[in-house]
Amino acid sequence: MSRASAALGSFVFLFLGPGIVDVAVPWALTRWEAHDFPLGLRIVGGVLIAAGAVVLLHGFWRFVVEGVGTPSPARPTQHLVVGGAYRYVRNPIYLANTSIILGQALLLGRLNVLVYAVGVFIAFTAFVRLYEEPTLRRKFGEEYEDYCRRVPRWVPRRAA
Description:
The protein is mostly helical. It has helices spanning 3-16, 18-30, 39-65, 92-108, 111-140, 142-150. The radius of gyration is 16 Å and the shape is globular.
């Protein structure tokens, strides 16, 4: 796969994956109608959305330039992605997706979106443990094992 093909595939997957999970479903749950909610929590929600979007786009970019592939299991990377945010946590894209959804729950004051965020994170955790990690172990072997020893799955480590 070329980087151009990886970029195109990642762009498409951005709309089919996070576009649905992070935008379409929360919109279907809320129609972007906000409930009265404390301003401080709404601000935190906005920050979580912005930070999540930055990390999400950064992760997609790393998959293209470093991994020469996409975040989609259908078009995986040729190389293990360990740079950028992946130096601190193994799953920054999943954390970014969850941050965006949680941010919407706070910004809109919607409990149903908070419940959805928890469900999405549980699904991500199951996918990582049952599919993604075994697949990466088979594909990258000791390189992935070493990466797992150095970088935590969910809670970012501090910069060294």
